[in-house]
Structures
1.
Amino acid sequence: MRPSLQSLAQQTYDVLIVGAGINGAAAAHAAVQQGYRVALLDAADYGSGASSRSSRLLHCGLRYLMPGGPLTTFVRHPGRFLDVLRTVRRSMAVRSAFVLEQPERARPIRMHYPVYRDGPYAPWLVDVAFGLLGALSDRKVALDYKRTPAREALAGNPFAPWLGNKDKLAAIASYTEYQFDWPERVVLDLALAARQLGAAVRNYTRVTAMRRQQDGWLVDVSDSITAQTATLHARAILNIAGTQVDAVNACADVPVGRKITGTKGAHIMFRLPSACRGQGLASVSSVGRPFYCMPWRDLHFFGPTETLYEGDPDKAHADTQDVDFLLREANSLFPSLGLERSDIVSTWAGVRPLTYDPALPMGHRSRRIYDQSDEGMPDMFSLSNGSLGAHRQTGKDLVQALRQRVAPSDPPQAGPAPASPIPDLAQILAKEDVVLLDDLMTRRLGLAWDAGHGLDQAAGIAAVAAQSCGWDAARQAEEVARYEARTRCLYGVRS
């Protein structure tokens, strides 16, 4: 049951975790297991930020071996290459752990990478890249890598009929990748498991001010819907608010350095030929960045873009420039399909909370855990660039950093593990802190990701939810209208 602000304020917490995305939820679950008294808060709904609007890929780390330019980039910057190897090792480790521990949340897909004779990476370099991936893995979850010569690939690969530049194709490299199905559910499972262990967990609760006291932090919070307020006391704070990390830090009475660079990743969705179902294709865009055609349910999406973004992350959408770029790239990849703007089923975009680095205008892709004691904020930590796939390891690493400063008040405790079965609507309404219809449609039921976004079901679901949520007829209509407007804004095709 979602606690009241007043009940939250009645306890002193070892750690207040700000941000209930996938990394915040993982940190809360790990911390409470280690005996910490935990409060987990989010200004919006659980998993409603970058966690829900990514490429939804539990990737092996191949993209990190594509430097976004010539391979001499790594020669000129060996430190960056070592960072990449560490990131790849972590990607392979968390991929293996998640697939083995929660196979029902990881959907295997067969990915294909066309290798062209005039492309940025020669066939032998692709072999080396996959050799590195294998060498850095625990070999418990296979990549199933295979490089097929052009003639054989053109005869049997599901994407071959629509590929461009067939005369320059040297081979197609294929491997097994995994997709989150779906990340919002993973966030909820972790947050609710933390609650079962004793954590105070609450959505739609915004931090408005933080003041350091001798024995910890006083944190003013406000209900994002009702504007009710309360003050919480915590010995330490983990700021895992993603794109809002700097905004949360700014709530303190001590100025600190910038931590986040936001880049937008936009995607467009199509219905491709049925032969491609469950199959994906990895490529490199015209600007030298990884570009995917990924299966999603019975659709496929293309993306992502990568552009600097300094607006409101909650309003990030695929704008005209994004759609034009993605459509050009899709047609360059598959010219025979002749994809047009009218063929787009939907779009979406998210903002990556990359690590701020003044030397890298587009941000740094290495994860950082900042101990802000040196900035005059003792027992305060922030996270940048916490990836979707590495959430469990990131949660453990955050708790390990916390332990260097603050000891837990209670002994460690075991379980429960995050739940596996998808609960029915009645259980969701009773136990999963539904505040808005969008919480149900987008994150609890996943209907926003269907071709029709669940728009034809919204009114019926709102009527069922009304009694549990205390909505009268006017509020029901308001919730349906809000969901429809938000869906068209965030997932529609802009002219």
Note: The radius of gyration is 23 Å.
2.
Amino acid sequence: MIGWWWILPTAVALIGLVLLIRGLRALFGGKPLSGGLGAVFGGAILWAACLAALFGMNIQTYARLTYERPVATLTLRQIGPQYYEINLVQPPREGQAAAAGALYPVHGDDWRIEAQVLKWKPWANVLGLDAQYRLDRLSGRYRAIEQELHGERSAYDLAAAEANARNGAVPFKVEAWDAIRRYRRYVDAADTLYGSAAYMPMADGARYEVWITQSGLVARPVNDVARNASAGGWTVAN
């Protein structure tokens, strides 16, 4: 992405600097009126351009640190008591057609998605590096501890499924962390490699979106069914 927030102010600042220098030369060359006006005008342009650059840099920093992108969309259909079918669709990678999605039968009250996330340091985010991820697992989750211990479980390996769909290629390989750690003494841009997860209540007809932020996964309800489930579905039924 072209950084117009600093290119344009820099160009204006150069113009102001040229005018300021010319004005100072004229001022000390025996032309106090024209030189003084030129120096004041050039200095004002230079000052305004610097302010605009700082303002743009502040906006750019905020935008980079809060940047996020979609990871998956989950649509749920109930097929039994505490039993749902999840249609999980991942956004197409660059140069690839949109995927049809995969169906996963899941037992429980909530669905849970996990990923391995490579988190960069904030200054690296500002320079353009985004958190990298690899979806790891989709599973069900019971709210009652007794059911969690003894109920029927569901868990699916999303990393293996994606690797099979892409002929062995995955968008982010954890093995890269070894190389990153090896060169941290020279450029310490990576913060940590860790597991991130998000979970939401399951309901018939609910639709959710999962996004990757610069710090990990976040899930959001998309339709009214999902929003109602999220608002009132966290209490355990007696």
Note: The longest helix spans residues 32-65.
3.
Amino acid sequence: MPLTDTQCRTAKPKEKPYKLTDGNGLYLEVKPNGVKAWRYRFELSDGNTRKESVFAIGEYVVAPKGETSEQAEDRRNGRLLTLSEAREARSKARSLVVQGINPAHHRQQERVKRDHEKATTFEAVAKEWLALKDWEETTKSKRLGMLKRVIFPKIGDMPVKAITPAHILDVLRSAAKDNGLSVANEAKRTMSSIFELAIATLRASTDPVHPVRKALPKNKTQHKRALSTDEIGQLLRDVDSHGGRHETLCAFRLMWMTLSRPNEAAEAQWSEFDLEKALWRIPAERMKKRKEHINPLPTQAVEMLQALKGVTGKYAHLFPHRDVRTRPMVSASFRQMLNVLGWGGKYSPHATRTTGSTRLNEMGFSADWIEMQLAHTEQNTVRVTYNHAKYLTDRAQMMQQWADLLDQWKKEST
């Protein structure tokens, strides 16, 4: 006769273990210490003979009242099973035996598989992807910060192959709501790149970002467009009247007078400058393309830096961090200043280079000079070396005229 739940629940321990048989190989072993263990007896062929084995299914429990489906799943994963659940486990084990598979071996393999999938979480793959990038440490740190703030709390601990488009959509919507569309789009691009690595290393088969890639509304901000000459003048006047940190204002002016990248200006070091020769030599490790770049300095920049040297010359960086003077200021300070001035969303520091390129091309300067000034490196290394020397004098004249025009536009009324 099959077991009843009452028999299982009321079975008392004895001096020696004993069995309560349910049928089809399933029985409940009651041990002297009170533990009631589900066992499944089966036979598998071993060559010409059949070998009897016992599969430990789990322990008998009574399901708690009010148990949720999630709680029940956790309990079963802990191998604590009711009578009906033990019978279901027996049926699954029997189907394996029919296929010639030992249920104990199959469970061990499944455990190894689950452990492997747990080890390949999205966070693990993301950090591997980030380590492969040939980026500056500051760039990697910023991207990791975004991952930790926006993405990891949602899907970081999930196996990368278990992540669905619905999970991605939740990340994107939350990012757009809490951090804005630009951050959400950065998160989208980053996640897609991470899944590309996961697919290439056989840890995922599809990119769940792709189906929802157009779910976000388009970013309507125009902060990367080139500014008009009137807007340049107004921006420079607004910055002059900002009243913020002197180092931030000087770094911002240096960026405009040289068309350098925001982080290149913010993290500039005194050892890179030869003010007598009016040159700024940025080492390869600080450049996006990992190639040394020489910037000619207009007289306005030289005069500004000569005055600044009396203020920050004792530090390694031209623009030391406000709190930790041994470190450089962060380029995010530019954005903070622009937001205070009401320029946030209309202009970003990166648009400085777009503006400079547009205006200098309009003025008829050589495209080669402009591209060299912007450190848009050519592939031909011989030509690069030749052009650096050839164009430096031309670029110096161009950037002096650019700095003069900045002064002129700043003085003009809109």
Note: Confidence is low (pLDDT under 50) at residues 379-386.
